[in-house]
Amino acid sequence: MSQHKLFLLRHGEGAWNKENRFCSWVDQRLSEDGVKEAQECGRLLKAQGYRFDLVYTSILSRSVQTAWLVLEAMGQEWVPVVKSWRLNERHYGALIGLNRAEMAAIHGEEQVKVWRRSYDVTPPPIEESHPYYFEIYNDRRYNTCDVPKESLPRTESLKEVLDRLLPYWHNVIVPEIKSGRTVLISAHGNSCRALLKHLEGISDADIAGVTLPTGIPVLLELDADLKPVKPRELLGDQAKIQAAIKKVEDQGKATPAGK
Ligand SMILES: O=C(O)[C@@H](CO)OP(=O)(O)O
């Protein structure tokens, strides 16, 4: 029997989604379209009568901004927003900033798919010589984490995302859901995929086929033990959602840059 509703949301489109670059821990803000997606998502949730008690975000601006826009559109700005690095996007290591289509042209589409969607393949780590290394690690938000800065990841597989996310899920989020609060997690494509894998028991192989579009709320109905009682529901116009999923998948195709 459904006891709890949990909502997962991948933030609205960011500037680097548009440029087709691996964004990861670089703190890009939402694009104009991303702002509209988040507002649209809030309007949809409001129209369907949902109410949140608590929102969790990563410490990347695009996920926080999305949560704010959703709550504003719902007229629920007062709802507490709690942030943790453990909900951050997957750390893409040395791939950060690179263009996916260019990478596909050089390394092949299959390799890019493995980097993007496999469960346990870890890209090469980010080194100090990387153009975004200091922008990331000198950012004072990373002084606020529950681990010393030196222990923060330099790259991650999806499995490693799940490893750092699960303690936060079990210790912080689960007790709130079990106490009856309706929770929205406004995070990222891969932190949401990792959590979905855990909740739905998706196999290591099958998770490669799961892609989440930006700005589309995913509704999970859970039993008292937080096991899903029915398939996840992506809320909104289903044709548009399928088109948005295809767009994300096609980002890994070797089309000429700029096309
Ligand atoms: O750029 C990233 O960090 C993610 C999306 O947020 O990319 P991908 O879809 O390739 O996993």
TrEMBL record:
Keywords: Glycolysis, Isomerase. InterPro entries: His_Pase_superF_clade-1, His_PPase_superfam, PG/BPGM_mutase_AS, Phosphogly_mut1. It holds the Pfam family His_Phos_1. Substrate binds at residues 10-17, 62, 89-92, 116-117, 189-190. One of its GO terms (biological process) is glycolytic process. Transmembrane segments: none annotated. It is an enzyme of class 5 (isomerase). The record marks 188 as: Transition state stabilizer. Plays a major role in regulating hemoglobin oxygen affinity by controlling the levels of its allosteric effector 2,3-bisphosphoglycerate (2,3-BPG). Also exhibits mutase (EC 5.4.2.11) activity. Belongs to the phosphoglycerate mutase family. BPG-dependent PGAM subfamily. This is Phosphoglycerate mutase. It comes from Megalops atlanticus (Tarpon).
